[in-house]
Amino acid sequence: MPPIREKTFLEFYDFTQAWQQTFTALKGWIIVEAICFGLLPALKLIDTRVRMDGWFIPSIIAGLVGAGLLGLSSELLRVVEDRLSGTQKKPLILLGRIASLVGIAGVGLPLFLVGAEVWMYFTVNSKKPL
After folding, report:
1. Cα separation of 112 and 24, whole Å?
2. Residue 109 maps to a domain
């Protein structure tokens, strides 16, 4: 009888599940991107064309990277919680959580930019005399 080999970490990692989670994050990011850079300026709810045009490409890059990090790190956290024990678990959980936070920041960049634009609009207009 051949010896039983212990599975490696990557053999537990389900890349199909990671891709599904990445595409779910991408769908949410596309909606946020369309609202922040398309719908709100088109409806003249925010005046962003001058200051935010330079942020469109970096926002796309941050969103794609962020969605990828969210998908991969969520699957990493699932595998670590299910399969690993004590001392192996803590650094990988920390890595997964940090990657998730960076991913959320990348996906949420358009919301931050719109919030900064609205804040700047109200602070500049509130200082004008009546």
Report:
1. 20
2. yes
Phi, psi of 13 (to 5 degrees): -70, 125
Structure-token pair, residue 36: 């922040």
Which residue type occupies 45? L
What is the extent of the structural domain holding 47? 16-124
Q: Is residue 82 part of a domain?
A: yes
pLDDT in tens, 24-40: 889 999 998 898 888 88
**Do 115 and 88 form a contact (C-beta atoms < 8 A)?**
no
Q: Could you tell me the two tokens for 104?
A: 């959320």
pTM of full prediction above 0.85: no
DSSP string, 84-102: --HHHHHHHHHHHHHHHHH
Count of domains forming the chain: 1
Q: Which residues contact 71 (CB under 8 A, 6 or more apart)?
A: 18, 19, 20, 21, 22, 23, 24, 25
d(CA 97, CA 77): 8
What b/e string do you get for 61-85 counting C-beta neighbours within 10 Å, with b at 16 or more? ebbbebbbbbbbbbbbbbbbeeeee
Is position 113 within any domain? yes
* Residue 7 falls inside a structural domain: no
